[in-house]
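We now fix the convention by which a protein and its fold are recorded. Here is one such record, which you should read through line by line:

>
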Amino acid sequence: MLGVQREASVGSDLGQSPATAVGLKGFPRSSAAAAALVLALAAPSTAGPPFLTDDPEPVELQHWEAYLFTTYDAAREATGIQGPAAEVNYGAAPGLQLHLVVPYTTAEPAGGGSAQGLGDFEVGVKYRFVEEGEHRPQIGIFPMVELPTGNERRGLGNGRLWARLPLWLQKSWGPWTTYGGGGYAMNGADGARDYVFGGWLVQRDLGKRLTLGAEVYLRGADSVGGRGTSILNGGGVIALAHGLSVLLSAGHSVTGERHGIAYVGLYWTGGGTAGPDAPGRVGATCVGPDKRVASLAGGGM
């Protein structure tokens, strides 16, 4: 679920006067650009829901994961909301997961006005190439592409296809799980720039129905003239029944560009030929959205 807004003056930096660079519904082009980049942080794209940091663990073979969620990001230049949004993951092959996010988006620039509509779609493939061992973490990659399906002029999308190339590691010890990593984002949209990102998370199972975690997430400047940001975020998973879990998190920036973020979602997993005690099924020793959010689970963003 991660990029961050560019400065509100980016329209004039591109040779466009805010007075004349006007998008739909009266949005100044600069405000729409700021809103679009804020929405990149509100999205779950680099995240293992409900966190910003992702993990290398794919969905089990022939299993499905589905999330219905909303994300929120309040920044100085704009507020971005993605929701209702849907994330779907499928275990297409051993160690290989297919990924899709379809968001409904709300953009609210600080200068006033708002826009709503379909946001940018996200597609990706997660591949774990090192299995976890007694003294070895599991390792995987999760390249993702953002498709420019949202209306850039209204601040609902980036305007161009862009991509992220991360590497993630994970290791578990009893009720404790830790994972993290980072990567490089490539964005050629007007006013945007490529940047590095990374994060690390520690979480603990508190019984079979609750997992809590905390993370630090860092992201370099993603806009011309912008700054990077570092965020502290905490959250957890509450397992229900029939493969359902509730996911919650909230956090705030501690350095760089200001962000207040939140995630709330409903998670479901199922499919395949595994029995009732297989990982990812409620009633087993694992009950959350796979081990990226809960090692109970045998993670959108």
Summary: The radius of gyration is 19 Å. The chain has one domain: 10-293.
